Amino acid sequence: MIVPRNRLILWSGIVILPCSLIGAVFQTAAASAATVIALYFLLVIIDGISASNCLRGIEVKMPELVRLCKDREGAIELSFTNINSGTKRLRVGLPLPAEISSPSEYFTASLPRGAQNSLFTFICTPQKRGRYSINTCYLEGSSSLGMWAMRSAAAVNSEIRVYPGLLSEQKNLAALFLNRGVSGFHSQRQVGQGREFEKLREYMRGDSYDSIHWKATARRGKPITKVFQVERTQDIYIIIDSSRLSARSIKTESAMNNSNAQQAEEIIDRFVSGALVMGIAAERQGDRFGFLGFSDRVNAFMRAKSGRSHYNACRDILYNMTPDRVNPDFDELCSFICSRLRRRSLLVFLTNLDDPVIADSFARNMEMVSRKHLVLVSMLKPAGVRPVFSGPDPHSVDDIYVHLGGHIVWQNLQELSQGFKQRGIGFSLLKSEKMCSQLVSQYITIKKRQLL
Questions:
Q1: Using an 8 Å Cβ cutoff, are 437 and 274 in contact?
Q2: Which of 138, 212, 285, 421 is the most buried (most CB within 10 A)?
Q3: Which helix (H) or strand (E) segment is 284 a member of?
Q4: Are 249 and 352 a contacting pair, CB within 8 Å?
Q5: What is the pTM of this model?
Q6: Residue 155 CA to its chain's centroid (Å)
Q7: pLDDT score at 260
Q8: Same structural domain for residues 135 and 8?
Q9: What CATH number is given to the structural domain containing 349?
Q10: Residues with pLDDT less than 50, the chain
Q11: Residue 350 in contact with residue 272, Cβ under 8 Å?
């Protein structure tokens, strides 16, 4: 498509208007004025014809896969091929989705003479994680005299993956992300002698009678002691609830007090960030990490493994997890866990139990799961959920009802926590801004106490 530029409008005003006035006022100069206008129109037509060739021989390519991080500035590379090898100046625009912002809608690319291949970058900042695609790149080139612009749409095929930004979480857990030279090195002190059987040896003075292997003692005719070692590799599973309650937005307490704070995140976003941080923590502790996503069915499952490639595979599934507008089916989830997870593992549930019906269904199914696995239930603390007289003073009748509603939810969660405690299930309410650090702290405590 060819469109006029501002230069054409400017020169048309400079040439056509004065010549028309001169021809109208002075009859003797009318022929000369008409000739000048005709020559000007001829020049404009010739320049318009040359504009149709300004984008000929230019090809643009984008990477098939672009990886960016949420709320972090990134760059999209564009490669231009100029077959004619002439100097050209282009305006390039990308139809970015609304979730990805950019300082400018387009940028100017100058293709130097003699260079067939040129590389440029388009700066942008993703605002929401997920998968996006770009299928078109818009190009605009100017004619020889700059009066016309030729626009075209080049077909490209590029996929943009926006991963959760873990920079702020890494700052809170700086010691965890330090690179240690020994693979599987345990930085935390283990309490006790361990529970994994290692070998048999002869009884030594000071050994406990509880560690004597009586059958081996009878066979050998002398006291034999069992030696245990600390479990080196254990399975950690993060189980994420992606049902309708995870689609709610949640604000931190500091954001609620600040009117200029950024838009609240969805609960599912915090769950995904927590799962990725727990994966890094498990890798640092020498454990195997896996995850399971569910709503009314099991949506995703990765068996616990270790290694960088396994973590990347988990991240490629987690980044695109979205909530479903359905109720969670804990019966289906319990059946899946009992049939697939044979080895005793640490199951960290990231779910929402402020709905009494959902909480009752969850508690009923976890009674069976907790007999074989170590279960830890974590949920984000809803805004305003606290004892009735622990918050700020109410200023209106509506505030009184809000405080009473928060107290009722808090009381129900406390009763639910007591029921979990009797079944050996851990339950905790996490703050949104400290969720990742609290999860890792609970995991490290379990490792130190060898509860698994």
A1: no
A2: 285
A3: helix 267-284
A4: no
A5: 0.76
A6: 28
A7: 43
A8: no
A9: 3.40.50.410
A10: 179, 181-186, 254-261
A11: no
